[in-house]
Structures are given as C-alpha cells and as structure tokens.
Amino acid sequence: MAAALPMELCFAAAARAVTPAPARPRQRRAGATVRCAATAPAPMGEKTEYRDGPLERAFMGLFARKMEKYATAKKKQQPPELETKKEKAVWDWDYESFVDVSRRVMVGRTRAQQQEAVREVLLSMLPPGAPEQFKKLFPPTRWACEFNAALTVPFFHWLVGPSEVIEVEVDGVKQRSGVLIKKCRYLENSGCVGMCVNMCKIPTQDFFTNEFGLPLTMNPNFEDMSCEMIYGQVPPPLEEDPVSKQPCYPNLCSMSTPSAPVCPKLQ
User: Fold this and answer.
1) What angle do CA 142, 160, 63 make, to 5 degrees?
2) What is the DSSP string of 31-65?
3) DSSP readout, 112-141?
4) Residue 180 contacts residue 228 (beta carbons within 8 Å)
5) Residue 18 has pLDDT above 50, yes or no
6) For 128-140, b where at least 16 C-beta lie within 10 A, e where not — what string?
7) pLDDT cut 70: percent of the chain above it
8) Could you tell me if 184 and 154 are in contact, meaning their C-beta atoms sit under 8 angstroms apart?
9) In the chain, at which end, N or C, are there fewer CB atoms within 10 A of the end residue's CB?
10) Is the model's pLDDT at 7 over the cut of 50?
11) Cβ atoms 174, 187 nearer than 8 A
C-alpha cells in the first residue's frame, strides 16, 4: 500500500538501534512451524506466516487508524452504541485488520477516489513542509535513488514482506536503485488486483513522483505476486501500463468478477 514516511523511518531506525537485553529462548510446541518471512516467502498458493513485533504493529495501527476515517465516511449512520465505541489503540491492529480497512476504503469509491484517499492519508502522516524538505534532501539523483532503495528493504518489510536491492537500468544507466519484493504481503493477503493497483501501486508512485519529486515505478507480477520497484524511473500513464489489463484473482478475491476480462476496479 502506501510508502513508509521519512519521519517514521528515522523513528524506526532509532528504535531498532537500541540493543535489547538477552531474552530466554522460547520453546517451540511440537508440530508448530514458523516460516522465516525474512528469506522464504511461501510459494504461490500458500500464505506466508509472519511474526510481527510491537514496532511493526505500531506502523500497521498508524496507517489503519488514518484510513479508518475514510472507511467509515461512506457508511450509513451507525447506532449510538457503535458511534461512541472507543478507537482501537495502534498496537491493537494486526495485518489482517489493516487489509480489511483498505478493502472498506475501496468499496463505494471510484478508482480516482481510492487513490486520492490514500494520498490524503499519506499527507496526513507528514509534518508540515515535509515534501519540500524531502526534495531538498533527496533530489532525483542516482545517489538519492539508490539510498531510497536501500531504505525500502528494512522499512517496508512490515508492509510488503521480504525484499532485496537489485540492479536496474534507468535512462540507459545501470544502478542499484531497484527493489525486488519477493512476494508482496499486501497482495497476498488481499488477493485483490484492484487493491494492489489503486491502493498501493498508483498512490505510491504518484506520491514519490509528484509530492517528493523522486520518480518511482512499481511493476507487480500477478503470476507470482512479486513486485519490482524502480527508483528514478518515471511511471507510465495507467492506460499504457500492463496492469490496466489485469483480470481478477477469481479464487482469491472476495470482490472478484471472474467473467470480466479486466478487474472491474481498474475501470
């Protein structure tokens, strides 16, 4: 979905720099298996298991609580007892509920409205003047592109799963400003082509390209759920992008239209 933000990145880096006290190793129950998400996402058709820590859940909660306002905006009037229900704390969210909020933001909105909602959520998480400061710190140079690619791997892990920096070609120049997401956690959990494109790919591309002034192109692979991010490459218009012709995942998406040649949410 949306990109991690510079201020949050600094906070996360500081939090992780603190060395925790040695902990007593946990005993694993017999028969229990945990897949190491850092290096081995599950094969296509299986779901990767993640063990999210407090910091990851805090990021999920921060984004989900912002998006919740847009998810409830389209709902009918709720009973009084629901209207006064206490807001969930940031650490009470998990990834499934984060994806559910994204799905509810999508319902009842056009493609453009979905993308605008994500843009407003991202802007609401930034301090005043942050886009201008980002442009000063990271002008669209090779160094800035490679630096942001390197940041993506550790700080997007909670959102998209394991990834690695790769070499790509931008305007005829080879540089390490590409990121290969091995199996996108957001796409894997939502199973929805429309959510991938409207709630993640397009808003993230537009946010970096237009708000931050650092071009970014994202190329999801719907056959294996991997995705290539290329910092420094200007994204094509949606009508020229291959994703605009992508059909639904009929067996994965609860909102799918199997008979349609193209996912209806892309139209």
Assistant:
1) 100
2) T-----TTT-PPPTTS-------HHHHHHHHHHHH
3) HHHHHHHHHHHHHTSPTTHHHHHHHHS-SS
4) yes
5) no
6) eebbeebeeebeb
7) 79
8) no
9) C
10) no
11) no
